[in-house]
């Protein structure tokens, strides 16, 4: 198959820094959209994959699944886009489109395996897919998203992963005006959760271990801040939340948060893909409480999220970096030293 | 307040065997129904309370919350019942009737505290309530249930706790014809779960560690038996269940059961009111899976359950015992040596 060459940054082994490399992209097929990448967000998953933390990385790893760019070429059957459109690509670039999950617009749970934006088997070229730390990418039109032109394109990049990851559970569990909603953890995910819950009309409570995050949480849209280490505050809020979005990215004791839920209310985990602490069965039984997980969102819901961001002028708070500074940015993500997401300006790679 | 004396069996301390004692019941008030107790089921909770396992027992403990009897006297404002009616009393005898939970027919979660059938503060006589190991009881008409006359009254006793505990989650989570439903654990709760799920039209899979329970599970209505220690069988059933009812009464590793759930499916815990093992966040996230708890059911739903039992001729499999043999029966419950519930014939106490 004919290919075009692109500059990219990738890691050749699990111990290497990211470095400049050249990758192949497929030529534009009938249903493909070729995108000139403007910006790409840095997600903590990128670092996990580069470092093989999940034991499934294939090298070289070219990460990046928060891609913003302009359409530069269209396949003959592409109807949804035209040249120059501002578009996005998130965590997925394909799925089987034929299974129960795909029929329900839940491509992230494709029974036959969604094609993720990087480190997934590449159906076209063989090998595995390469992500957005690159000058360009070619994607099936069904996995390309429209970015509202009225929002800042740089701050839009993290919407493609951090945004949909937090919007989807708030939307799926029907958070609405007047609901008391807790967001646990103020990082890349949590700050988006606060913005979305606020825009949905909820009474938003930032739940954090760090009193020094209170001011920023309120700036982002939290109406209250609950310090989870303060037993008295936690008791005062017991059994009062309609919904809790838990963005903590590591294993932790979830029982104190279950205690905050109302009868029949749900806490959804979106961060911790690892073992949590022991869960107290009685805490769930005494109130018919629920704990669930949620993974990004389907393509249809991702477009709904972007349209919602257009209506409410929501973007991520970002710090721009050049491609050449990505290794330092990775260290700062690991140290939680960013408010709240890094976005790579891909102009730096083109020059 | 005027009282009447009743014979009962109770424990005077947390180390004592149950023994014959005399207790007071209130005189019949305007909204009260006085019941001559025919049968009372033995629930594992009775044993926990007698032995103060939950550190909240008040002595003497007269247990029993699976009560079947005949109406012998009615208050002036009682309209729902007449003398001679076959009635039941379950785990609750009163609630505030005024809170959000009570307004939703979820008296078991009464914000101001439901009055449980035993070991709850007694609003009428002071002290605490006494359960059904007794010749009679007087209960507010709103907490009295009609027992269908076509079902065996002895086998009906455990419906008031084991029955509603398993019916309620199956009903609330809308189990329906064709659903693949797992019941984890074949004991007093599990055997009712199998009967209900079968009657609701589900494809019922008994999930058990014990291959020797397979035959009985099928007799009770299971269509398949899945041995949870068999990795190959567990893998074959991965991601296939619409709903799982987990009746295991002690802490255990729930992750293998979460793996059995379909996308968006729920497992409900009804047995383990204690710490479970560590729960893997990734198992919930990869499939938007849910784990919840459920506690008995409200009075309205308990009546629905009893009416359902009347329609489908469902009762518990019981072994009858005399009141004088209760201490031995307790030991056999602890040893899981009963198929599947003991019911006390209260005639033995009257003689």
TrEMBL record, chains A, B:
UniProt cofactor(s): Zn(2+)
PROSITE patterns: ADH_ZINC, D_2_HYDROXYACID_DH_1
Domain Enoyl reductase (ER): 13-344
UniProt keywords, alphabetically: Metal-binding, Oxidoreductase, Zinc
One GO MF term: zinc ion binding
Record carries keyword Ribosomal protein: no
This protein's record includes keyword Protein biosynthesis: no
Family statement drawn from the similarity comment of this UniProt entry: Belongs to the zinc-containing alcohol dehydrogenase family.
Stated name of the protein: Hydroxyacid dehydrogenase
